[in-house]
Every structure is written in structure tokens, then in C-alpha cells.
UniProtKB/TrEMBL annotation:
One Pfam family, short name: Radical_SAM
Ranges of residues in domain Radical SAM core: 112-341
The species this protein was found in: Candidatus Jorgensenbacteria bacterium RIFCSPLOWO2_01_FULL_45_25b
MF terms (GO), sorted A to Z: catalytic activity; iron-sulfur cluster binding; metal ion binding
Entry keyword set: Iron, Iron-sulfur, Metal-binding, S-adenosyl-L-methionine
Protein name, UniProt field: Radical SAM core domain-containing protein
Keyword Repressor: no
């Protein structure tokens, strides 16, 4: 049974939130950096330990129309007003480095790194060698390798940011071209070696020759996120053709191998988009991952205006609750958890702490 605050998170993810102009003036700096489809909103902590990234009309006018939830500012506090009730909210600032430039290249730090909650995500590849219809990256950025020096400088800046200090690192996509696989792996090692006391995760497509779990663990990578995203084969073929060519078997064989190398405790995760395929397919995907000892991560689909799926509706609250509750039952049977296990990183996922020590702050 969901709590009122947990239900509110799901409503906010589906419907978005309204921020009156007066409230915007009370926020120091931008309300969001809106750098990615699933992080286009404002990040808040509701009550105790319920984190949410709530979409706003500024960046999701394609489906945020007249949300019944509004942000309220009173005194030194923020609240979410919904259904005649007020829920206290801790509004997270954007990082202080958001408008500053690297000394190594003169580019903005946010071209290399973005902090959400307590994690900084770096994107070594601008653009992507693939083009999935739900992802904005290949539609808004040209392919390029970024400066490793600037990436390292950006991580260091994020870790020491006075407004929103990062506690751990995620190295994500876009996906590199085959001729850049060597460069990508050398960059992984550089980051881990430069920050040996910081947990560094890698999120990447398991293309043959790109990732070696044993080598990544040996150099100090903490965990891997290998996202299947869509379990339904026909839809995957149509919506993410480049990834589908790698085959479902390639994904699941790689995930099984990675779990054996890294072990459990949430160090191997795989994200599934909720709301694109039939619920039954999503739940089959959750079970297939759980059987391997991998933590499934439920990501409610958020249509980005820059993508071909801009007019696809987000999943309803009823769908999200059904998927969440059934998924909890599934993972309990196999002794894994819904990821991510870092509580602040749950802001754009269908995950809640369950009171166990499995979920924690980095």
C-alpha cells in the first residue's frame, strides 16, 4: 500500500507541477537544467526520503497542460499543494557551477557534467552513435568525443560544489562509435584512477568489444547499468533499432555475466521504460532481470518534445501503480530490489525506500 506522499510522487510524474511566477522568484537560480528527457523537471524531496523529478510546462508543454499540483513558497519553506492538502517539499537547487566554464577548454561545465540530487553524471560522448525514438540525445546534439581533461575537471568541480555537492559519479552515454571504444575504456580508467575514493558507475550499451565486466571491476568501477529499456521485441525493433540489432540474448547474457563478476547488492541494474509497451511485457522484463540477480529500474516514460515520440502520452497513475506493485512482488521472489538503491537517485524512477538497509544515501 502506497503512502500519500508516494502516491503524490506518481501523480507528479504523470501530470507535472505548476510553478507560479512568484514562487520562481523565490528560487535562487534556474529551477532546472532540463538536460535529459527523464530529468526535465524540478527535483524535490517530499516528506522523508521520497524523491521526485516533476515535469513542468517549460520543457514538457507536450503533456504538462494544467497540472492540479502547484509549488507554494511560504516563509523559508516550499510545499506541494495538491487535492486541498499541502506536503512539505525540499527543493533542490541546480549546482553552482551551472553557468561557469572549464579552465581546460573554456566550455560550460554542464556540457560535460550535470548533478542531479547527489550524483554527477558525465557524458563523454556528445550525441550518440544510435538513435532511439524515446531519447533526445541524438536529436539535439552532434556526435563528438569530449575532452577527458574537461570531464575530469567537471567531476572535481561537481564533487566540491558549494550548493549541490555530488557524492558519486555516473558515466553514461551517448554510445560511442566502434572506432572510439578504446578511447571510451581509457576514459573510464582515467576517471576511476583520478577519484579512487568515489563510487563510479558506468551506464552503457553492451555492444561487442565495448565493455568487459572483469576489466572494469579490476580497475575500480563500482557497478554497471545495462538498460534493456523495452522488453517487447516488436516494439524494440521499431523504436530502438540500433540497440535491438545487438539482440536481447546479447543483453541478457552480458547482464548474467556482469552479475557473476560484480555480485549483487544493486551493483548491476537495468532500466525498463514504463508506458511504451503493454504492462505484461514490462513485468516479464522485470522478472527476466530479477532471475539473473539484476536490480530492475522502473523509469516512467516521459515524452521529450525533441523526439519522434513527443505525442505519446505518459503512463497513467493506474498503470504506474500496477507495474510498481507487481514488480515489488517479483523482486521479492528473487531476492533483489527495485533500483536504484541510492535514495536520492530514485527521483526519476518508480522506486521507494522500504525501510531496509538495502536503500541508502551515498
Amino acid at each position: 500500500m502506497l503512502t500519500n506522499v508516494q502516491s503524490l510522487k506518481i501523480q507528479l510524474m504523470e501530470e507535472g507541477i505548476h510553478i507560479p511566477e512568484g514562487v520562481r522568484e523565490a528560487v535562487s537560480g534556474p529551477v532546472t537544467l532540463a538536460d535529459y528527457a527523464s530529468t526535465s523537471g524540478i527535483t524535490m524531496m517530499l516528506g522523508e526520503d521520497v524523491w521526485v523529478n516533476a515535469p513542468i510546462v517549460d520543457f514538457n508543454s507536450n503533456f504538462v497542460k494544467d497540472p492540479p499540483h502547484r509549488l507554494v513558497h511560504q516563509g523559508n519553506f516550499f510545499f506541494v499543494e495538491s487535492g486541498g492538502k499541502r506536503h512539505e517539499a525540499k527543493l533542490l537547487p541546480v549546482p553552482s557551477y551551472h553557468d561557469k566554464h572549464t579552465t581546460s577548454t573554456g566550455e560550460l561545465y554542464i556540457w560535460h557534467a550535470i548533478t542531479h540530487a547527489d550524483r554527477v553524471r558525465i557524458s563523454p560522448i556528445g550525441g550518440c552513435a544510435m538513435a532511439c525514438q524515446f531519447c533526445d540525445i541524438p536529436y539535439v546534439a552532434k556526435y563528438r568525443k569530449k575532452s577527458v581533461e574537461a570531464l575530469v575537471e567537471s567531476i572535481r568541480t561537481a564533487l566540491n560544489d558549494p550548493g549541490l555537492p555530488a557524492r558519486h559519479v555516473l558515466i553514461s552515454g551517448g554510445t560511442p562509435k566502434p572506432e572510439d571504444y578504446g578511447w571510451q575504456n581509457a576514459m573510464y580508467e582515467t576517471v576511476v584512477n583520478t577519484f579512487p575514493h568515489v563510487k563510479v558507475d558506468v551506464m552503457m550499451v553492451p555492444m561487442p568489444g565495448l565493455l568487459d565486466p572483469e576489466h572494469l571491476k579490476s580497475v575500480g568501477v563500482y557497478g554497471l547499468s545495462i538498460n534493456i529499456e523495452i522488453f517487447n521485441v516488436a516494439l524494440a525493433r521499431r523504436i530502438m533499432m540500433s540497440k535491438w540489432k545487438a539482440s536481447r540474448k546479447t543483453y541478457f547474457d552480458f547482464i548474467e555475466k556482469t552479475v557473476k563478476v560484480f555480485g549483487g547488492d544493486g551493483r548491476v541494474r537495468s532500466l525498463i521504460l514504463v508506458g511504451i509497451e503493454p504492462v505484461e511485457d514490462t513485468l516479464q522484463g522485470v522478472e527476466a532481470l530479477a532471475q539473473l540477480g539484476c536490480d530492475p529500474v522502473l523509469s516512467p516514460f516521459r515524452p521529450d518534445p525533441a523526439t519522434p515520440m513527443r505525442n505519446h502520452r505518459p503512463p497513467s497513475m493506474e498503470t504506474l501503480i500496477r507495474v510498481y506493485e507487481k514488480s515489488v512482488e517479483i523482486v521479492e521472489r528473487y531476492g533483489v530490489k527495485l533500483g536504484p538503491r541510492c535514495i536520492p537517485c530514485q527521483h526519476n524512477t518508480l522506486t521507494f525506500p522500504d525501510g531496509s538497509s538495502a536503500y541508502c544515501y551515498s
